[in-house]
Amino acid sequence: MNDRHTFSADSGTPDTFSIACPTVLPLSSILPEEPLLMMGAGPVPIPDAVAKANGVVINHLGSTMAAVIGQVKTMARYVFQTESKWVMGVAGPGSAAMEMAITNLAWKGSRVLCICNGFFSERMAEMARRTGAHVETLNVVDGTAADTRQAADAIDRFRPEIVTIVHGETSNTVWNRSLESIASVARAAGALVIVDAVCTLSTMPLPMDAWGIDAVITGGQKGLSSIPGVSLLAFSEAAWQRIMTRPVPPTHWCLDAALATNFWHNASYHYTAPVSGVLALHEALRLVCAETLERRFARHQRCSNALQAGVEALALKLYVPKPSRLNSVVGIALPQGVSGSDVCAHISRHHHVEIAGSFGAPIVRIGQMGEQCREHHLFRTIHALGRTMIDLGVAVDLPAGVAALERSLSAA
Ligand SMILES: *Cc1c(COP(=O)(O)O)cnc(C)c1O
């Protein structure tokens, strides 16, 4: 392993490389022997077809890539439920898609109302501020959904050109169940609506055209069960008009939506596309289409309901009351005297199940996105969670949890 280094040292040129060649461990001795079951807030497990596609490299331009991109856009239109032509991808995390939507639609002086439910919706506000936009936030009480009346008042008062809102706030597991009516109020007031659907797209209904949404963003590693690092977004025709009539080009060259059409609409060069990740995304979308959205939504609902029933039967508390509770990431209140990091470390180390801590809320989170919504994963997760709590000194009823899970699944 160090032959080369030894060779250069022996050949009398020890000073040629002032930084010595490092000795590192192979991945096989870093990664756990048994792969962890990824039941956190993403990344989620990926299907074999996605993993295989992710190992392929093709030319980033040319007819093969053009055929792949054509299909990715067609499938994405189905998943977004939009007829808009302006569907595109971006090399980067969900946050890059978020930044692409915001920095193309907002600029210095733009009036942006950001409805903030937590960590991720607040991120949109921060991105909007950085464009020099005039940003106002509507801060929603933690653990509750945004209210249409309050949103309407804020829109009336502030007269925004753009409203940002999150569909599912992964950080505190709140579902903005009034998204449709808030979008409709915003639209009626002449504002464009940007929706963060990173954790919800393809897990629950979000019909972009029917709800009059102008930009929807998502990542790869959550609902779609693809890899992290390649993300998707869609702009409405109205959003596109605003982008085309901007007074100045956006600051971020890589995230410039007009330039992105070179690759996503004209089979030519913008930057070298993340080829393997695009192929992986193709396969993830193909599996969504094969399943159909109806059946995929039903699977998510059924699995998440069962997980929630199992958690409650363990005698643990769910963080968000039922009406505003997000299905795609379930927040579990931490029992007295137990820390989130203890729970996450213990369940990972002893049961090879990964779950998520939080960004401040006193909870741990279990994902129900894409491949996480499989019965066998649920049984393993509820068992691992129950055992972990017992090991940490929390009195839970493990058999009752497993029974409730089974009852809920077989009743559905
Ligand atoms: C995960 C997540 C993001 C951020 O996605 P990254 O890929 O980490 O950038 C944004 N919004 C929501 C709702 C998320 O769940």
TrEMBL record:
Pfam families on file: Aminotran_5
Enzyme class: transferase
Known EC number: 2.6.1.44, 2.6.1.45, 2.6.1.51
Domain of life: Bacteria
PROSITE patterns named in the record: AA_TRANSFER_CLASS_5 (PS00595)
Cofactor dependency: pyridoxal 5'-phosphate
Record bears the keyword Transferase: yes
GO MF: alanine-glyoxylate transaminase activity; L-serine-glyoxylate transaminase activity; L-serine-pyruvate transaminase activity
Record's keyword terms, sorted: Aminotransferase, Pyridoxal phosphate, Transferase
Stretches assigned to the Aminotransferase class V domain: 58-364
UniProt cross-references to PANTHER family, sorted A to Z: ALANINE--GLYOXYLATE AMINOTRANSFERASE, AMINOTRANSFERASE CLASS V
Similarity comment text for this entry: Belongs to the class-V pyridoxal-phosphate-dependent aminotransferase family.
Protein name: Alanine-glyoxylate transaminase/serine-glyoxylate transaminase/serine-pyruvate transaminase
Organism: Caballeronia udeis
